[in-house]
Amino acid sequence: MPISRKIEGFLSKASFIRKMFEEGNRLKNDGKGPVYDFSLGNPQLEPPSQFKEVLLKTVQSDESCTHLYMENIGYEETRSAVAESLEQETGLPFTPGSVIMSVGASGAINTALKAIIDPGDEVIITVPYFVEYLFYIDNHGGVPVKVNTTPDFNLDVSVIEKHINERTKVVIINNPNNPTGVIYPQSTLDDLGKMLKAKSSEIGHPVYLIDDAPYRKIIYDTDRCPSIFTAYENSIMVTSHSKDLGLPGERIGFAAISPRTGDAAELFGAMAFTVRTLGYVNAPALMQRVVRHLQNTTIDIEWYRRKRDLLYRELTGMGYEMPYPGGAFYVFPRAPGKDDVAFTRLMQENRVLVVPGTGFGTPGYFRIAYCFDDSVVEGALPIFRKAIEESAK
Questions:
Q1: CATH code for 63-291?
Q2: Burial letters for 158-187: b for 16+ Cβ neighbours within 10 Å, e otherwise?
Q3: Which of 191, 147, 194, 187 is nearest to 168 (CA)?
Q4: Can you say whether the dihedral through the CA atoms of 311, 328, 178, 186 is positive or negative?
Q5: Chain segment 212-262, per-residue pLDDT in tens
Q6: Does this model's pTM top 0.85?
Q7: Half-sphere exposure of residue 322, counting CA atoms within 13 Å on the CB side?
Q8: CA distances from 246 to 67, 193, 249, 305, 391 (A)
Q9: Where are the domains of the chain?
């Protein structure tokens, strides 16, 4: 066998999201008509104009030595800009020593997990979850523990508490959530923080809370996304600018360690080491210099809000049941007939690509990513209507 048995097994369970993306490319090239592809959260919205202005200025700069190796943790001036923005947002004393620039949020998560967990340690993830978490945890010998959320997909703090034991090292949440679009309210995060503080004291070591937050600035009904930093001391936020600046292909993000973390300096040192040894080495130099100036800039949220409002109104009007999506750019309806894989195949036959909830650990639902042109959304609505009407016969 030319590849490892473990990877062979993983490949057989590979991401539904990527499979649908690949199927979309095949259909788009078959010449048989339009394809309505809602499979991958790959934003078509262009970055804000400020990005292009800063990028051009940066590329044309006469500053010397701009392509040399840097500290693995990233440029200090970029980390300072991130820290200043986080301090303004939370009121906490973030410093450059709180921030590590990373190759996207995925690089930041792996850097944190490698620094924290030993083989056999448990990492709690809440269902539905981003499927790659399972592979990230396995990368470092951890054991994923899947914990259900409430019927409306809010965190169930009491259920999380029941799964914490001496082997628990990390709880990962994703707020706003992919695939549901649900935002966990501050009151829930505060309750989670109180529980984790008590359980950490009980089991004799900190349980770290990691918030995977690439959608934290894509919110529609509130001015600010609830924060783990004000809820719990031992917390790490990982994020990227893939969504809030429309830069998914640039793979630029960061990890921020709460300044209230008891062993913040030790954790920072460990993550500075793991970011190098994992092979990410550092975040792209050019993008670091650009996003330094864009920490308080976002894409046009209204572009997404219009699609959210249209899809939620039209689909619920047709009879689809779904949680209210307060953020991100996903809706997560219940699949007619309750078989999400069969429904996904039916939609695929009608040239609409969605992702079955099974891929997120939640059978019976499907995910729609609405980060595409209005024509894609409007063209698919009659097909969604036909599908639910036929399922009712």
A1: 3.40.640.10
A2: eebeeebeeebbbbbbbbbbbbbbbbbebe
A3: 147
A4: negative
A5: 999 999 999 998 999 999 999 999 999 999 999 999 999 999 999 999 998
A6: yes
A7: 29
A8: 24, 31, 9, 15, 37
A9: 5-47+299-391, 63-291
